[in-house]
Amino acid sequence: MEVTIVGAGLVGCLLACFLARRNHHVTLYERRPDPRQEGADRGRSINLAISERGIDALRRLGLDGKVLDAAIPMPGRMMHAPDGALTFQPYSADRSHAINSIGRADLNRELLDAATALPGVEVRFGHRLTGLDERTGRLEFEHGKTETARVVIGADGAYSAVRARLQQLPGVSFRQDYLDYGYKELTIPARNGAFAMDPGALHIWPRGRSMMIALPNPDRSFTCTLFWPHETLAALDGPQRVRAYFAEHYPDAFELMPDLIPAYRDNPVGHLVTMHCSPWHVTTESTTGSTTVGLVGDAAHAIVPFYGQGANCGFEDCVELDRCLDQAGDDFPKALELFERRKADTDVIARLALDNFVEMRDKVGSRMFLAGKRVEHALERVLPGYASRYELVSFSTTPYAGVERRVARQRRIVAGAAAALLALGFAARRRRGLVRTRDGG
Amino acid sequence: MEVTIVGAGLVGCLLACFLARRNHHVTLYERRPDPRQEGADRGRSINLAISERGIDALRRLGLDGKVLDAAIPMPGRMMHAPDGALTFQPYSADRSHAINSIGRADLNRELLDAATALPGVEVRFGHRLTGLDERTGRLEFEHGKTETARVVIGADGAYSAVRARLQQLPGVSFRQDYLDYGYKELTIPARNGAFAMDPGALHIWPRGRSMMIALPNPDRSFTCTLFWPHETLAALDGPQRVRAYFAEHYPDAFELMPDLIPAYRDNPVGHLVTMHCSPWHVTTESTTGSTTVGLVGDAAHAIVPFYGQGANCGFEDCVELDRCLDQAGDDFPKALELFERRKADTDVIARLALDNFVEMRDKVGSRMFLAGKRVEHALERVLPGYASRYELVSFSTTPYAGVERRVARQRRIVAGAAAALLALGFAARRRRGLVRTRDGG
Question: FAD-binding domain spans which residues (chains A, B) (predicted)?
């Protein structure tokens, strides 16, 4: 089968690998130039936290080793209080579990190499999609070039041009929700050739309504990201205000950022959006056969980054679509119809990612939260089969919706156990004559 | 001020009238040809139910008399049971209150006449918007024509081209929700020159998951609309099935529809969508001044038709925007910023319209519902200031959000009164020795 993928980012490249393995011919159209060429725009140095779902997808293609070699494991969070005090909190009761910091650009180059090394995969850079007729499969690109395809898969990200076409069709429900927050990237460079902070953690500066995070890079720098209300970003409009604000709220990081002022001034403000779309595919039958247009990854379900699951979820999409192709005997319209079942899972992670923003920026700094996590990890060690939501999301491939069902079930069991313990304690105290009851016991 | 309105439908024309009265110069761009010309596509014969909000807007421009002269008042609902039994239920305790059936095309021609009669208003038909730069106010139309405007207002309906541009901007949250229902129009023609059913009612055939409604026309026909699940529409794929289905579920209407089969076959299936967008306007400041692009009516907040409020709400938008221009001294960026407050109201009517679908297709047929309505009307007559939600939505200009607050307050009062009545009754029975109490009374 000839398959056209729009977008040669992380998910497009990985999907191309899965499809090539099934002996399909894949053409990827990418609007940007080849990032592996000299002089290509490197874009922003966005870091990803690759965890089990992403690793599992890579493992199925034998790509996990090479990708993880270039990654830095982060087994926990390091919280930075306003006074500079540090608190480390492991992500898992199992100390061998870690999420892995990796640069998006590096990973993209790796996956481009992997895809183009496979027979039947071709990538055409500098092709920006400007039009799509979902009935005929006719694609129009900037500068007038056109192509026709029977199977078109949009892997072209949160602002997908393929989805923009689907959205115009009656019956396609759609939602884009912007947070009233912007993000801006900063850097903590290496100091004397060494990491300026512990590289074995995802660093968080929780500040109530705002926060900053930092992830380590192989060059021993950290990429920091501010997540601030737009009004805060707008209010800090000069070097003095920026300096004063950082000195007050992020004093330890401030000392580690010699380029804060130009970086803050020059780096753009990014937006945080959640996209929902339903259905993700449209099939048109005609006398000459069927044409199918579908969506995967951020194009189908962009989420905010606060659970570190955007790329992991997109990679898992590829695994699931591969599974659907197994079930559908490589009939793409059927497989994309089956793939709609994944929406139950992506809806869950979209919600959890939003919820986790509040947790990261606000709750992780509190003693109650830390104590709760310690109890949860103790339960994980003591109760066979008990696992926290974070554990299941980050260190398992349990479908996201299944995670939520299991977390709800566990809560009921633990609440029941707690009630039983209370009752037992009550009975014991009563035997010891410590409790008076109405019937005179 | 020069103002460009995209869309010369109901809301675009009415807004042009309001703006012309404020001495603005208004150019309306409409993609269709002039509907007042011979041979123009008349479109589907959609009926509207104009009620107080719409009338109030027309009244402010002196247009209410002429519009209502061509309308047919419907003081209540007529429910058709599957066995043909009829139940009439007034919309209001005040029998003089009625909603008014009027054809969309007729009303549009009326408003086009009204707008073009005003100095400073020009309508350019056959101009389909294909591009818009919100920063420069540059508009592109089909066939290569371009214009530039400082103030652009999209009144171009649920599938607004102006909104399509705003949706692409970061920070613009958006949502389109399709119901899994289609609608299809049918006709009950006049019989022997007379209405075949009572013209003084909105007719409803509630059938649980499905329904049909019918509104009277001045030519003594009724326009019927089926609201059916897509699967039902798809399943009735031949004349025999259509005939059998109508004979079973809509036997009384079936007898009044001689053209049922060709109409059912030829009339398209419409879709039912709710659109949410936020913000509704974007202003760009430059050294040469500001450019503002905003949305009104369905372009800003398309709703489903089940509360009969789509056009009424759009007309009320014009009144509110006129009020905002008063407050802002005709500064459009400021006025459109103020106009964002209306979203609290349009969100409410969007929800009520969805809720009312369940009421119309399912509940209006039940005895409980009818009894509840009778109690509600009795309360309206007995309690000073008490008004039902339907009364406030359809026969007042209380802002929609205010309606919901008032309904909630009334419910609390009535619940309190009911509790007090119960207690009084209890005390009375106790005095008469009819109630035994624990303390031996």
Answer: 2-167, 292-324
